[in-house]
Amino acid sequence: MKLSFVDALGSAFDSLRCFRWREYAPFFWMLAIEGVCLALTTQLQHSWAMTVIAPIAKAAGGEDNLHYPPFFAYLPILLGWVEGVIYSVLGCVLIPLSLLRLYSRTDRALSLGAGVAGRLAGAVIPTLLATLAGLGAIWGWQRHWAPAVSKWIAEHSTGSTGVFLGWMATTVGSYAIIMLLLYVPIAAVQYRTNPVRAVFRGLRFGIRAWIPTILFGLFFGIPSLLVQYLLEKQGGHLISRVAPEIVVVFLALYVTFSSVATYLTYSAGARFYTISRGDE
Question: Mutual orientation of helices 195-208 and 210-237 as an angle, nearest 10°?
Answer without folding.
Answer: 80
